[in-house]
Amino acid sequence: MLAVGNSMMGDDGAGPMLFDLMQQTPIDGWVAINGGSSPESVSHQVRALKPQRLLIVDAADIGLAPGEIRVIDPDDIAEMFIMSTHNLPLNFLIDQLKEDVGEIIFLGIQPDLVGFYMPMNDKVVAAVEQVYQALPTWEGVGGFRLFEGE
Questions:
Q1: Are the C-beta atoms of residues 106 and 58 closer than 8 Å to each other?
Q2: Per-residue pLDDT tens for 59-68?
Q3: d(Cα 10, Cα 27) in Å, to the nearest integer?
Q4: What Cα–Cα distance (Å) separates residue 45 from each residue in 2, 50, 85?
């Protein structure tokens, strides 16, 4: 699992919060990497693991209610103009990793507020916990809905 986001920017800390949960209580079969706001800088760590599947978790402004979770087709990320606080758009990183990873799943959590020193919305916190709870029995897209331009 590659966590993306900045824990100092309110709901953009969704990915890092999941990383922290996985560090505190690891889940068999999962390795967590914290990509922070420059996930491209840890792409070598992902490559070294040679995973069959990579789950990328990040806050994604897709126009839903705060805390809504959707699986977003990585091929659609560039076209959707997803809000990003990262150095490079995620579609560049995903395209790069496709060479070494069999399956990439991008899981977006709708943020409420993204700003320095803002607290995380309770619904976003609950969404991160929901993702964490889904990991031990993960199959397919983890039981989460696909984003369909809602």
A1: yes
A2: 998 899 999 9
A3: 25
A4: 10, 9, 21
